[in-house]
Structures are given as structure tokens and as C-alpha cells.
Amino acid sequence: MSDYHDFDHFGLDPRIVATVKGMGYSTPTPIQSKAIPLVMQGRDMMGAAQTGTGKTAGFALPIIHRLLPQASTSMSPARHPVRALILAPTRELAEQVAENVKMYIAGTPLRCATVYGGVDMEPQTQALRAGVEIVVATPGRLLDHLGSKNTSLSQVEAVVLDEADRMLDMGFLPDISRILNQLPKQRQSLMFSATFPDEIRKLAANFLREPVLVEVARRNAAADNVQQELYRVHESEKTGALLELLRGRGLRQVLVFVNTKIGCRRLARELQKQGINADAIHGDKSQDERTKALEGFKQGTIDVLVATDVAARGLDIVELPAVINYDVPYAPEDYVHRIGRTGRAGASGLAMTIATGAEDRAVAAIERLTKGRIEVKPIDVRRPLRGDRPQRGRERERDRHRDDRERPLPPAQPRGAKAPVDEFFTKPYEPAAGTEAEGKEPEAEATTRSGKKAGKVAALLGGRQH
After folding, report:
1. Residues with Cβ < 8 Å from 188, sequence gap 6 or more?
2. pLDDT tens readout for residues 114-135
């Protein structure tokens, strides 16, 4: 299989070639060079390539080429049946793929619709019922529309599973099986992913027919143009290490990965407290919130985007300078996907991982998967100063007492020297003049009813005052 060095030699429709060139692309990537001819021939295929290598164009351009001969300019929905289905694991990836497809078909009568959850179904329903040839969808929401009879898959000619490994990890296998059962038996099936573990190969054996495997790099390998660095720290130093990497290198537009949604929220808040323009993106956020955060990050108004693995799938930022693994991923395959966010389309990238002793086994699993060692680099984590955050009440009280204890004492006297004594204390007692005479009154003896002399009683206990 020979490689192609420009888009003119594929035999693609001239409208597609003109659109691609108008987007600034002249030389196909390795995965595009190998995949486009096979897809144009109608072959089933498994495409293995890292994210950011142009997989979307690798399957979208030839599919569009095959659909164009039957493209209709009619307004009738019946003249625009669904003929190509692209399944993606997340909303972000579906939106990203659809955005590219819509650019590719801009000069043609073909239509494309995006279907995913988290938003109102009504606009999607209207688009589907108006007729579309290409549907980009997440499995769950597509099943909702199929159940509501908003569309039909009976005329689909090509189906694509994009990021197939992630769909399996997210538990979409039952949904995928239900969708595939509604497709015609005679169809073209394609599977694209950055990694191809054994589970993916088993899935491919069930719905691909004599597929051709296209690999443009070693299986499960990280991109060669991404520099990988590992920083080992104590658990209490992770946030300090992250701040040191962000500030010490002057990084802007950085994607920071964490393993949990709650950790995502907490880290974003902590970065904001430290004066860093950060935001979070995770599964608990609404689609509008996620879209707003992504747009802010793409436009540069947000410097640091803290994300979970699922939320960041499909995120395509041109020339993203760096990604940081604040948490080492649980699955080593996720490491390949994470660092694939940088170094896209042949550009250089930087991937930094902060690891504690408890994550050593996860790091070792990554190195076994990628068959390479991650360079360990030292880092000087600055201990947080007292002024770095506002003090709580107990801390303020503690510091106040500490200040009292640490007040300077009077200068010590030289050894053997006597301390000065006030002369007032060395004089004998001398009553003031006239005090004794004026205060003396003749005492009258008190008697009781029996005639006996009364004893003296203290004035405080009700006795007589003399």
C-alpha cells in the first residue's frame, strides 16, 4: 500500500479536495494516507493511531466521497435518508467530529446532524425529521430518537465507531449492539481508536467483515513528538508541584487531568484561590457549562482547564502547548489518550505527570504499555507561606498567643548587680498625722438581755461597727 503525498491523488471528488485545501491542508497525515484509499474501496477497517493524527478526515472524507453521487438538492426529507452513522463516546467528541464533517460538506448538498444527551431533544428531532445523510451521535441519545421514531437507520451504508476503546470503557457495548442490529447487513463498518486492546479486537470480530488493520505507529504507543516528564512528590506536595510547573514555566492554556469529578472541582477552586484563571469540566456540569468552559479555553480567556478523562475526549485545541497529569490515570490506555491532546497534527507537545509513591504501580503499568521509560525530573516544591491563604479563627488565636509569648523581655541585669529598689519600701511605717486621734471614739459596752457582756462580732456579719 503506497502512501499519498497530497489530496489530489486520492481520486476524491473535486469539491472535497477544494474544501480541504481551503482549510489549509495540503499533505495528508500517515493515517489519512493509508485509510482513505481503503475506505473509498468499501473495505471494513480497523484504524489505530494516536489522537490528533487526523483520524476524522481519514474516514469522513472517503465516506462523503461515496455519498455524493446520490446527494439531492430536494427539500423533501425522503430524499435525505441517513446513509452514514458515526458513533462517539462523549458529547464533546461528537460535536468535534460533526464540526469537521460540516466543514467538509460545505460545498455539497449533503446534510449532517449531531445527536447527544444533556440538551433538549427538540432541536435534534427537527433536524433528523428534516432529513440528514450523516448523523454523528452518542449511543444513548441515538437510542432515544430511534425509540421515538424520529429517524431510521434502514438505509445506512457506512457506520463508524470512533474512540471505540473509550465506548467499551464507558459501558456502551449493549447500546452499540442494539444500534448495530438496526443497521442493514450489507454495509461498510469502520473502527478507529488510539488504542486496540484485546477487548476491542473481540468486538471487531463480531461486526467487521474481513477488516484491514491500519497502524501508523506501534500499538498503544505515545506520539514521538510529545516530550514526557515525570515528577515524584509527596501527596501533600501535589498542588504545590502543579503551581510550580504552571508558574515556573510560565505555561498558558494547559489541560490538567484528574481522576474524579469531585477532585476536578476542588482542584479548580484551589487554583482560583491561588490567582490562576482556571475552570473545570466534568460529567456533572450541564452541556451549556461545559461548552462555555471549552470555548473560554479555546479562546484563551481561561488559562488552565481541569478535566476528567471522559469530559476531555474529543477536545481539539490547535497547538495546545502542554498537558499535566495531576493524577496518574487508573487505566494505562488513558495515559495515551491524555497526552494525545498535545502535539497534534505534527506539532511538538509537552506531557508532565505528577506522581506520588502510591501511584508507582500505575506509572509502571504505563511504561509497560507504551514500552518506554518516562524521564524523571526533579522539582523544588515551594512550601506554602502563611500569607498564601487567609487564616482561620484558630490559627489567628494561636498566632496571637505566640506573639504574646514572643514579645521581647526587658534587658537582663549583669550577673552580681543588684536591682534598683524604691526607697519608699525601705522606710518604717509612719501613720498620717491626726489619723489615730480622729478615728477614736469612746466605746460603749454592749450587753445582752441577760445582762452579760456581748462578744465582738465582725461588721460584715451584722455586728456593730465601732
Report:
1. 39, 42, 43, 44, 157, 158, 159
2. 999 988 999 999 999 999 999 9
